[in-house]
Design brief:
Shape: rod-shaped
Structural class: mainly beta
Radius of gyration: 33 Å
Distance between the termini: 31 Å
Oligomer: single chain
Number of helices: 6
CATH architecture of the largest domain: Sandwich
Strand content: 25-35%
CATH topology of the largest domain: Immunoglobulin-like
Length: 365
């Protein structure tokens, strides 16, 4: 397990994983003007396949949808029954209005015979960039698109539209499922932070359009549960949801990991470099060649053993490896820079002046 240089806690595996180039272009274009707290947290999003039976195509389904807008999953219509139809993919959140800059999804497998696509397009607030797969829209195809102007802002917002002909029953029936973009296996959104953060939309959060049979209405995901989040200072373990943990610089320990009854987070402790004691995390102590005395151990009193020289009335002079306090109690001279009495170092370190040890000790304090 690796540690951050500054935080000295295990490296996080968050939602800021490397993204496909179409998403990273957001940072290049400098589209974001800052981070939004709640509006940028897109964890509970769904993608809805929705049809408006009374809609009559004029010129722009993206803007013309506004007069037919829905605001609840109970209003979703996801079945085409015949003729030339338009349907939309809507982005919606249970937690309210959101602001985002990238959307990506695809289609799963379906029978292309009952519905013939004639036209389609992304619904950008102003302008945008789209990278579809070669045969989009079609079975097992996908698209990713980002804004190049204002971000999307709202809830139950149309992000894509399709126009085509739904054939009757002699041509069969099918369900066109919203799915991952097969080019990278992702379905979801990215917000407008720099770097942008991806939010995955799971299978239950993706709708489907039915042709001659009912489609699928997605469900909102359950609220995230707080789990262990590790920090480099006390309290080392705090129960937080993942997005908040990462936002405040913690390390998310994963679902099912709790701070109680056993704290899973690394704690610093005494690290002995022979007789010199420093408070460090275990991995840092090992990297510098020290001996870790255990989490939550301290340097007062010093737990590190080193050479103690005493009884200079005899030759060779007495040498013993012991704790600093024990050495001083025996009126010895403690040498934190030496860890062994073999060979006996006390002949070299025999003091010739009362201040000799003080000068030596000052080098290690």
């Amino acid at each position: 397990m690796r540690y951050h240089e500054d935080a000295k806690v295990p490296s996080a595996r968050g939602r800021t994983d490397p993204m496909r180039s179409v998403m990273v272009v957001l940072a290049v274009l400098g589209l974001a003007v800052g981070a939004w707290a709640d509006p940028a947290d897109l964890w509970d999003g769904v993608l809805i396949a929705h049809h408006v039976p009374e809609y009559v195509f004029v010129s722009d389904p993206c803007t013309e949808y506004a007069s037919h807008a829905i605001h609840d999953l109970s209003q979703v219509v996801n079945q085409l029954s015949g003729g030339m139809d338009v349907w939309w993919v809507l982005a919606a959140w249970n937690s309210g209005t959101k602001i985002w800059c990238g959307t990506e999804f695809g289609f799963g497998p379906f029978d292309p015979e009952p519905f013939a696509f004639h036209a389609s397009g992304a619904c950008f607030p102003v302008g945008g960039l789209e990278i579809p797969t070669p045969s989009w829209p079609g079975p097992n195809e996908g698209t990713a698109f980002v804004t190049t102007g204002d971000p999307w802002n709202g809830n139950y917002v149309p992000v894509y539209w399709f126009r085509g002909y739904a054939y009757g029953y002699p041509h069969g029936a099918t369900v066109i499922p919203l799915d991952v973009d097969p080019s990278n296996g992702f379905c979801g959104f990215c917000n407008c932070t720099i770097p942008p953060t991806e939010f995955y939309v799971g299978p239950d959060q993706r709708g489907a359009m039915g042709v001659n049979l009912p489609g699928i209405t997605p469900t909102f995901p359950s609220p995230p549960q707080p789990w262990a989040c590790c920090f480099s200072s006390m309290p080392y373990c705090r129960m937080l949801i993942e997005s908040i943990c990462l936002q405040v610089g913690g390390v998310w320990m994963g679902e099912g990991v709790s701070c109680c009854p056993i704290d899973p987070c690394p704690h610093p402790g005494a690290c002995c470099l022979i007789g010199v004691c420093s408070l460090m995390f275990e991995e840092e102590c090992t990297l510098v060649g020290g001996t870790f005395m255990g989490p939550d151990t301290f340097c007062e009193p010093n737990p590190c053993e080193a050479v103690c020289c005493f009884d200079f009335s005899t030759a060779p002079h007495a040498c013993e490896v012991m704790l600093e306090d024990d050495c001083l109690a025996a009126q010895g001279f403690w040498h934190p820079e030496v860890g062994s009495c073999d060979p006996n170092p006390c002949e070299i370190y025999t003091p010739t002046h009362n201040s000799s040890w003080g000068r030596i000790k000052s080098m290690y304090r």
